[in-house]
Amino acid sequence: xxxxxxxxxxDPITLGHVDIIRRGAMLVDKLVIGVAINRDKxxxxxxxxxxxxxxxxxAILSEETGTEIVAHPFENLLIDCAKDVGAQIIVRGLRAxxxxxxxxxxVGMNRALDSTVETVFLMADARRQAIASKLVKEIxxxxxxxxxxxxxxxxxxxxxxxx
Length: 163
Fold this sequence. Notes:
The protein is an alpha/beta fold. 45% of the residues lie in helices and 20% in strands. Helix 2 (47-65) links the parallel strand 2 and strand 3. The protein is globular.
């Protein structure tokens, strides 16, 4: 069984994430969405809320793709998380050149730690390249409409949280 790991903070999950999950699911038999705990980022949503949002969105994607998609919180090294879930592939999304520079370094470090885990990059869909969770939260905080960037369920969660 080919298992992929798509890690991130997902605070909140955006349509850009959904696009990468859908496309990543086509490459593997099982896709694990690694939800980083990362307390340093000061997430808007709790870990439990982020996992619940991901599970709700991924239930639909799992049906669409025929691939098992599960959420898995983690706080350890990404390469250790990959080992924990049995992943042979790490899936990463790229939006811009700046993403590549960071990811290039990360791949080098991960390969030094475990050369058996491969990283696969998926370019963001052109319509989704500008979407970043950080920007979505900022727009929502300032009263802007983020419905073009997130699913209706996530949009409602943002509205509720920022009341």
